Amino acid sequence: MSAVQPVLSTADTAKKTMDVSNGSKEWQEMLETEKAGLVERVYDLERQVLEHKDEIVCLKSTLADVLRRLATIDNSYENSTSGSGRGGTGTPAAGGAGGGSGGHHTVSDNVSASGQNSLSSKSFRFSRNTLTRLNSTVDEKRFGRVPSRVTSSPSRVKTNLAQKAIHYSNGSLHSDSMSSHSISPAPSPSPRQPNASAVANSHHALLASSGGMGKRWSSTGDFISTPGSPSGTGSSGSMSRFSAKSLLNLSGNSSRQGQTHPYVQRKNEDDEYVKLYISGRPIVIHLPEAQLSTYELTKVQPAPNRRLRLDWAYGYRGKDCRSNLYQLPTGEMVYFVAAVVILYNMDEHTQRHYLGHTDDVKSLAVHPNKLLVASGQCGGHEGRDSLPHILIWNSVSLATLNMIGCGEFTGSINCLSFSRADSGSILAAIDDSPDKIISIWDWQKKEGGRKITETKCSVDTVVAVEFHPLDKGQIITIGKNHIAFWSLDQNGMLYKRMGVFESFEKPKYVTAISFTQTGDVVTGDSSGNLAVWKRGTNVISRFLKKVHEGPVFSICALRNGGFVTGGKDGLLLLFDDALHIKAEQIVEAHFGAVRVVAEGKGSQLLIGTTKNCILSGDFTLSLVPIVMGHTDILWSLATHPQVAQFVTGGRDRLLQLWDSLSHSVVWSKDIGEPIHAVQIANAGDVIVAGGVGGRWSVFDIVTRELLATYTDGQEVIQCMQFSPDGNLLAVGSKDNCIYIYQCTKVAHRFSKIGKCTGHSSFISHLDWSKDSQVLRSNSGDYEILYWNPTLCRQITSQSTVKNLEWATQNCSVSFETIGIWPENFDGTDINSVCKDGEEQFLVCADDFGKIRLFSFPASQPKSLSHSYRGHSSHVTAVQFMHDGVRLLSAGGMDTSVLQWRVV
């Protein structure tokens, strides 16, 4: 018994060990099954949480939009009920145009002037407090006012961001007017304009020291720009024009025998001319006889008592920008062109405009709450406010909440992304500097934001940055030769893992990025491939080859888990959540390649293209253009003499006829060569377009058919102008000559009379006298000459021409435009001028992206104006519509057309 017992014990032990081993395997299998099920349940919970968040966001946004509309109605009611009480005379707004009838003052002007709001405080508290409660992550003060900007370095001059508090769609950034779309009754100061009371105090102090000139200055408007600061920004920029010397001149201390001015001179009061100095060159301008006895250089021309409001922005920037088209839950789509961010409601066909930027907007990101928007710009010309920076603003009230990184970036802000797994508390930005810096910002921590960290991203181009929607602190960047997975730890350190392609084809560019509902990363590349990167890894788990012919520019994740991709081949592909192709759609070639795809309402898609168009549609119906624009430098603009239409032409060879009431393109035609000048005949039946090589063409305005082509010289046609009686056409060329044509009874037939020679530089502007008997012209070297058009001879007798009345005001060098030239301006800085039909206003456009509104004529050297921004590059043309109420301006490099309304 004792000998057998150990053997039995050993066998029993082995059996028990085997049973335990089998039980352990079963336990492990059970754990693995449970783990897999748990992962699926976690993914499902994450998806449900995101869906609930989206529903809450939609409810918040809808409520905010309703409140905005209610506040707008409330404001309109208050304006109408208080309008009769404001009749008669009113107190002029500080820094604004006063001295006129009280009927010209708006509620916003009175608010800006006195700091008191005529709207009910009850309405104000309701709108503000309710909006504040909509977003618990944003401090209450951020909706009521914008905190002052804090620089990151003590050496930088501090600027008060309260001056940039609110930017509205219908006010000049240099004016005090407030948007009619705003829900907040707070005044809207300019981002570069000093506080109204501060200006008034310093202004009165200067007046007191200059011998009691308060009465003369009580009705003046906004100050125009200074030589050192062409925009007229800041208090020093606004007041430096009025130096002690100028004030002495204004007080009458200068000699009556020799009136002088920094850039305009009249040696003796009996002289019948003045000398205007442009770029150091004196231009002799003869005075009309009616002005001889009363004209004084020291008089001040007040700014007009009416202003401009941005009514519509035509165009879209899709040619070189990505991820710049979003649908908001309120029904508005948000995109940008030039320095304007546009909120467009397709159903109501209305626009609102955010005008806080000072130069080209290059990037856009929408906060997870769908109420806040971040937009980044490139650097401009005008000091600190034009340095590259990011603005955070509210899409309902259009109030600026914070300015991020002013002075911290060296290049334009090309990519932006809010964090998504932590309710958007931080912001990532890519600086398009040589080092392609990625920076992470706590944008709501303090005024001006707090930079958490920054590091070099890539030596090559970066096209996108995105936060992971589920994993906190995870960031992905893509671009040339790289995809990088970044981790931001609790200490603010960034760690980088490069994507590994292993055996898959490594593309030259990774061009598009999106995420699945389970957190996997989906990318598209320049070879037309799609790759899926497993969540939490930097390796490819699935690869779809040659989905597109050419680069994949956009991947849009749909609400149902599917995807839509768009590429350079103009193809839109619909995928299900397993990345199986379900449908396709073709974008017509003349609209351009697909740049960005965004999900609209229901099954609707929004497609931005490389030819600056926005299309709308789905995979069952054809795509319809809702926004169209030019794609290259926009040179020329002309308005229809009878109806609400206008025509534009640019270097992109496109001749486009627009309707200013429906805000749409009537027709577009590629004429085969760059267009430098356009004009519509007085009868409104034909369009003449000047091109290169001396050619100019005639088109039927209804059928857009080419009717005839003419050639004059071998240089570019610079400008064209019909006489008021419609019998003559003047064509100005770069070869220094003006060609005169007789208009025949057949609309497209012109008979050449001859050419006017005498200018020493290219012809820049042309004007006809009201009786169609005399033509005046400006040239590239600022000459002003007069011509007998029927004889093609120069008129040298000033007594013949100095008292003439002119049908148009295109010439920037004339007696009527002396005041548009600030001191030390370069002669090429003023590109275009025009007057309205009733000769109340004069508008000029300059190289700094600004439009200035003067009273007509602006014949005094000290002519005050209202200044407006919206364009980001040189404004090449301005023209009033035939009704004199609307004004159109054409941008150059920004390819936009802005429509303004006189209010």
From TrEMBL:
Keyword Repeat attached: yes
CC annotations in GO: microtubule; mitotic spindle
A molecular function (GO) term: microtubule binding
Organism listed in the record: Anopheles coluzzii (African malaria mosquito)
Start and end residues of each stretch annotated as Disordered: 76-120, 171-199, 218-240
PANTHER family in alphabetical order: ECHINODERM MICROTUBULE-ASSOCIATED PROTEIN-LIKE 2, WD-40 REPEAT PROTEIN
Ranges of Low complexity composition bias in the record: 171-185, 225-238
Name of the protein: Uncharacterized protein
